[in-house]
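quick one before i forget lol
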Amino acid sequence: MKILLDTVIKRWREPNGYREILTIAIPLIISTGSWSLQTFIDRMFLSWYSTEAIAAAMPAGMLSFTLLSFFLGTAGYVSTFVAQYKGAGYPQKIGPSLWQGIYLAIFGGIAVFLLIPVAPFLFNLANHDPAVQKLEVTYLRILCYGAFPAILANVLAGFKSGLGNTWPIMWVNLTATLFNIIFTYPLVFGKFGFPELGIAGAAIVTTLCPVLSVTIYIILIFNKKNNDKYKVISGFRFDKKLFLRLIKFGIPSGTHFFLDISAFTLFSLFLGSLGKEVLAASNISFSINSITFMPMIGLGMAISILVGQNQGRETPAASIRCVWSGFHLSFTYMTSIAILLFIIPDIFITPFLISADPSSGESIRALCRVLLKFVAVYTLFDSFNLLFASALKGAGDTKYVMTSNLVLSFLVFVLPSYLSIFYIHKGIYEAWAIATIYISLLGLNFLLRFIKGKWKEMRVIEEHCIEEFPDNK
């Protein structure tokens, strides 16, 4: 026991150990936890409002996030450029990198906005209940209006996170979450003088949250101090070479994010054909998974930042130490969550069913209890997926992450679940078993890629940028 304790203490104190990771990760964990809280609050209120509302919120919300995900992942990859330039000692390349991400955010916002007219067609394909389809279309259309501020907020947060300055990100996200909590309830139920808008009210507040975040980030980032050091204002010009490099590494990152989200979106749409109760139970189970897992995305972001900075310094050994330290933390947390999901699932389920119709509430609860056992199993492998994929992307190994996700998501997840539901006519448990196998294989795949070590020689920044800014060394 003493040997284990001494090992933990040593790992806590050393560079790229537990303490250094948590210093960067804790604000990001709280931030991503606040995103989950926003989703949780929205879906809890909507589950109180009506079965149709909660049944519509999950697939429509996931589809909206799927449409955003490519641009969030691509433009947000700015954080890796910022981290590697910081590690390499070239601060005056950081502001121009930020601006290339802003230009991508503008393009992404326009692209998602143009998809609003096709919303009815998308949900009609899924063959959901007509009442649910109507709400899905309403929810998605409103969320699409907030695409640009959502992508831009992610880019601006990438500037702060890439520098390792993560506490402002936490405060911005907590402010947006507080805004969400204050205004969602009255706009959904028509309280305190607000109109009763139902699912539209939840969508409106969700759309306004990133607008608030962007406003705060603009005040924090675009000032004289940051401009003198990083050229955040004077570096606004379009830089073709830098933009193309961001595209080169960012598009695979964005595609990976898109594939991951779209696979689960399709899965949710497939489940909708099994009935409202099945869809509602799956949505609640995914929401619980989100609230428990999303904080670990913050840890993954911290790992990606530290790997990026270490790769900029050309110290891959430090990256390895950092990643394994992060994995110890993640696996410990996810194991604890898995045990709770197995032993006391009702503490997670009950908040969603407080105002549920008694005739359907108990059957939904019974389904959720089983589905959370699947969640408990795959969360352990999801810690592999999260940590090692984040490390690979922090180094610049984005093409491999994208390709492996493309192959596995289609061959192991989307196609088998489609065939299982629509052709073999299997039920919800077989579908969730397929999802569990997919996540497990994906996590093991990224672990093996990391161990092989090809990423050690990768960087996203220029090999010879020292010649451009020799005074920064």
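fyi Confidence is low (pLDDT under 50) at residues 466-473.
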